[in-house]
Amino acid sequence: AQKGMSDLLRNACAEAKEGNSTIKQQVRDIGNKFLNSVEISAQEAVYIILQLPMRKSSRNVVFINTSPPNDRVELLKPLSEIEKMSNESEEIHSGGLLKRYVERPDSLKNITLADWAAWYDSSGLNKYTKSVKKSDIDINNDDDLGVQN
Q1: Does 2 fall in a domain?
Q2: What pLDDT does 112 receive?
Q3: Which of these, 51, 115, 120, 132, has the minimum number of CB atoms within 10 Å of its CB?
Q4: Which residues neighbour 27 within 8 Å (Cβ) at sequence distance 6 or greater?
Q5: Do residues 41 and 83 both lie within one domain?
Q6: pTM for the complete prediction?
Q7: Is residue 91 part of a domain?
Q8: What are phi and psi for residue 130, nearest 5 degrees?
Q9: How confident is the model at residue 125 (pLDDT cuts 50, 70, 90)?
Q10: Residue 7 is inside which H or E element, if any?
Q11: CA distances for 113 relative to 95, 117, 146, angstroms
């Protein structure tokens, strides 16, 4: 089944390139060819048609890029900000999670990277305050109640 889909997409790419259409139209054509050829379950089709979420989570997920520094992909600062910088400046990358962690205040030096990513947010006016969300509090936790059978 996978080989059949690969051949189908390869042929769709070739057909799209032969046409006199824009890149946007080529991508649309390839996507339509794929969507019209994929078999999905009735349940998945209903979720797609009704635009229901395929998954739910009470937790946020934060990706921490722990690749070696030379292998990390970083976002560039906006062009308007780069144009305002001096010609000698080489800081064209916007600061990410790891940069903010390294530059955290002395009062937070004992915080691990995982705790930093999970609990501390440097955005907004109130910098570096620990966030507590309602979903982080388990109201059904009866571990401390001493319930015995």
Answers
A1: yes
A2: 92
A3: 51
A4: 16
A5: no
A6: 0.47
A7: yes
A8: -70, 130
A9: very low
A10: helix 2-18
A11: 15, 6, 34
d(CA 47, CA 92): 42
Tens digit of each residue's pLDDT (9 = 90 or more) over 41-67: 888 878 877 888 878 878 778 888 888
36 vs 133: CA distance, rounded Å: 42
Residue 138 in any domain: the answer is no
Q: Tell the residue number behind the tokens 């691990």, with chain if given.
A: 112
**Any idea what DSSP says for residue 94?**
P
CA-to-CA distance for 57 and 53, rounded, in angstroms?
A: 10
- Rounded to whole angstroms, how far apart are CA atoms 67 and 71? 6
Q: How many helices (H) and strands (E) does the chain have?
A: 6, 2
| Helix, strand or coil, per DSSP, at residue 101 | helix
Give the other-Cβ count within 10 Å of 132's Cβ.
9
Note the pLDDT tens digit of each residue in 10-34.
Answer: 887 888 778 777 888 888 887 787 7
Residues 29 and 73 reside in one and the same domain: no
Task: Tell me, yes or no, whether 77 lies in a domain.
Answer: yes
Residue 116 belongs to domain spanning: 69-120
Residue 13 corresponds to which amino acid?
A: C
Q: Cα(49)–Cα(42) distance, rounded to whole angstroms? A: 10
In total, how many domains does the chain have? 2
Alpha carbon distance 146, 88 (integer Å): 65
